């Protein structure tokens, strides 16, 4: 089994961001430590390219009146 977990090193201990499965109790595990940095804003945008699309699409969105109700059958009649 392989799983990526995140932890913080504090006072000589690794503090996991989430608990391990109880089935792992008593088992030996192999850890591979990789130091991570907080991603910059440009790196976050590369990870989530839909961010640019959402910003682009929002400029074309229309405000609907509060009483508007979508009717699929009415759309198909057109």
State the main characteristics:
about 80 residues; alpha+beta; 3 helices; 2 strands; about 30% helix
What does this protein look like?
With 78 residues, the chain is an alpha+beta fold. The protein has one domain (7-77). 28% of the residues lie in helices and 10% in strands. The chain is built from three helices and two strands. The protein has a two-stranded antiparallel ribbon with strand order 1-2. A hairpin with a 2-residue loop joins β1 and β2 (13-16). The longest helix has 9 residues, at 50-58. The protein is elongated. 0% of the residues are buried.
Q: Characterize the overall form.
A: elongated
Radius of gyration: 24 Å
- Low-confidence runs: none
Number of domains: 1
Short overview:
By secondary structure, the chain is an alpha+beta fold. The chain has 3 helices and 2 strands.
List the helices and strands and how they pair.
Elements: E1 7-10, E2 13-16, H1 41-47, H2 50-58, H3 72-77
Antiparallel strand pairs: 1-2
